[in-house]
TrEMBL record:
SUPFAM superfamilies: Sm-like ribonucleoproteins (SSF50182). It is found in: Cell inner membrane. Mechanosensitive channel that participates in the regulation of osmotic pressure changes within the cell, opening in response to stretch forces in the membrane lipid bilayer, without the need for other proteins. Contributes to normal resistance to hypoosmotic shock. Forms an ion channel of 1.0 nanosiemens conductance with a slight preference for anions. Homoheptamer. One of its GO terms (molecular function) is mechanosensitive monoatomic ion channel activity. Its main location: membrane. Coiled coil: none annotated. PANTHER family: SMALL-CONDUCTANCE MECHANOSENSITIVE CHANNEL. This is Small-conductance mechanosensitive channel. It holds the Pfam family MS_channel_2nd. The chain crosses the membrane at residues 20-38, 58-77. It is a multi-pass membrane protein.
Amino acid sequence: MSYLGNAVTTMLNPKSLMGAVLLGAIVLALASTVVMFVRRSARRVGEHLSDVTALRFVSAFAQVLVYLIGFVLYAHVVPELRALGTALLAGASVVSVVVGLAAKDTLGNLVAGFSLVLYRQIRVGDMIRLASPLGVISAEVQIISLGFTVLVDEEKHEVIVPNNIMMGSTIIRVARETGH
């Protein structure tokens, strides 16, 4: 029995290449299982909700968070990755400033998407009036994602509006879908 225990301990040693790869596979399998559970739970809860916008957002965010936590835990267990992680963290801070400046509109849409989902000023199914470059349009809210809000106007055209525009505009809610 002790031979088997020693063999397993040797195989899972994070200092060896085989152990690091095996631990990575285990962490990936565990994270994927948790993500599958999150997706299944979100589907079950969504069946009982009339507005699933916030649920979809929370589910997607939780899935990304599970993989991120799994990677951080894996990097913490493997000694060679700890030193690399420190160097990457220093480099990532410089890169994040550059990317943040380059993607300020995208990040603005993301933050506005958080606000739209959390504050629920408008919801899927609402009829709204919104100022556009072509004038005021009346449209139904179809999708509220983190980057864009999709509206369908009276002529059945899709109007895709960046969320930072939605948050910066005066919106007139004409009608709210019942049950929301």
